[in-house]
Specification:
Largest sheet: 5 strands, parallel
Order of helices and strands: HHHHEHEHEHEHEEHEH
Number of helices: 10
Strand order of the largest sheet: 1-2-3-4-7
Shape: elongated
Structural class: alpha/beta
Oligomer: single chain
């Protein structure tokens, strides 16, 4: 029994994203079900379906292909060094090449104007590398789909205003979604619990002890975030304290989220 009757658009999506070379629909079901007849029956009857990377990639390893069965990944926070930044680029490229999407967090990158021990003397800031990561996403092909990238940053980062505004230029960071990690302290300033809307964004450079502090009006910054989200659909908001407190391993004191995957745009 086969309940699949695809229109032209559905057929094109299946052919471009999930069909391997010229395999028939029956061969495709046999491949993605792993030869399990019960699973194959459920797929035919439209009662069960795997995630996209399984539908595309299962069984291709037997043909020598390097693939992933997971749709999305999160990399460790980008390390505050040239080597760390381009290690992230390398990890992005490899994950995209297998068909996975990726989330990264740039909160550890030192803010604009901070001292660096190289020819530049000061850094161009965390946001200046966002297009670099976006370009990797654009460059690495994924057989009928482009890579998915999420870039997040903490509300405490002194470059937060640049981050919130970066996609108001439609030529910037065109191959990534972006989200801001907000916390209870910031939101209490926004809603006026202490009658003082001023919030300190602070960054301490671990190698030098240099401390960079930028004071912002929390209400104004939040309204900028909301306005840009309304006008440009980004940035999203990640309520980080809730994520940290209510995740499924929140009682493990050694566990800490690095960031979120591309599906976590709120």
């Amino acid at each position: 029994m086969n309940n699949w009757k695809m229109n032209e658009l559905q057929q094109a999506i299946w052919s471009n994203k999930y069909q391997h070379e010229n395999e028939t629909f029956d061969k495709w079901i046999e491949r993605v079900s792993g030869g399990d007849q019960e699973v194959a029956r459920l797929i035919r009857e439209q009662k069960f379906l795997f995630g996209g990377r399984i539908l595309s990639n299962r069984g291709l390893d037997k043909l020598g292909k390097k693939v992933t069965y997971s749709n999305c990944y999160v990399l460790p926070q980008v390390d505050d060094s040239i080597e760390g930044i381009y290690k992230t680029c390398s990890d992005l490229a490899r994950t995209f090449s297998y068909g996975g999407g990726v989330g990264i967090d740039i909160s550890k990158l030192r803010p604009k104007g901070a001292k660096v021990n190289n020819a530049a003397k000061t850094t161009t800031g965390a946001c200046s590398f966002m297009n670099t990561f976006s370009d990797v996403t654009e460059t690495i092909g994924q057989n009928g789909r482009r890579g998915a990238l999420m870039i997040s940053i903490d509300i405490n980062h002194p470059d937060i205003e640049d981050f919130i505004d970066i996609k108001t230029d439609l030529n910037n960071v065109t191959k990534a979604n972006i989200s801001v990690k907000v916390n209870n302290e910031f939101m209490e300033k926004v809603i006026g619990l202490d009658n003082n809307p001023m919030y300190k964004c602070k960054f301490i450079i671990s190698t030098t002890g240099e401390e960079i502090v930028k004071e912002v009006n929390a209400k104004d910054l939040f309204m900028k975030l909301c306005k840009n989200n309304w006008d440009y659909a980004e940035p999203g908001i990640l309520y980080w304290d809730n994520i940290a407190d209510y995740n499924i391993v929140s009682e493990d004191e050694e566990f800490e989220y690095s960031g979120v995957n591309p599906c976590a745009l709120v």
